[in-house]
Amino acid sequence: MTPLIQFNCQLLKQARDVIKAVDNTELEFSAMVGPHLRHVIEHYQLLLEGVETGQVDYERRTRGGCIESDPEAALSAIAELEDALTHRPLPMDAPIKAEFAVGMVGEEQMAAQSSLGRELQFVGLHAIHHYAFVALALKEAHIALPDGFGIAPGTRRYTTSTEDAASAA
Length: 169
What we know:
This protein is mainly α. The chain is about 65% helix and about 10% strand. It has helices at about 5-20, 30-55, 65-70, 70-85, 115-140, 155-169; strands at about 55, 95-100, 110-115. A three-stranded mixed β-sheet has the order 1-2-3. Helix 1 runs antiparallel to helix 4 (about 70-85) and helix 2 (about 30-55) packs antiparallel against helix 5 (about 115-140). The longest helix is centred in the N-terminal third of the chain and has 25 residues, at about 30-55. The mean pLDDT is about 90.
């Protein structure tokens, strides 16, 4: 398994851990957690569909639906993504045309040549961005966070290096 696939699987495991942590708490899944995780899941789903066609349009997200409101549906979708990431041939250099809406109100559609590896970087870091919002809700509700949840790898590396430098001084 490549480091990039492993990284994305670890991110999906964090989502799974958060869903389980929210279960049986006062925090309503569909209020603060579900919408962000659904958004992340849909990006992964669209990218993996794009591997087959050579094109991914991130604007084709379903939005709403059971993944956003039902923790079991979210867990099932995550399991499918983890299976696809670990059991399908995924050449990191496979070309993919990535499409996005641009402009202040999405009035234009833009496409750029990319690769599966680059898009896996994007969806992984995009997930962390949304996890940071979820982390705020979890902290407010006094729910334990998975280690490093919502913190970018570069931020963690920087924090560790500055802590190491401070302790060495």
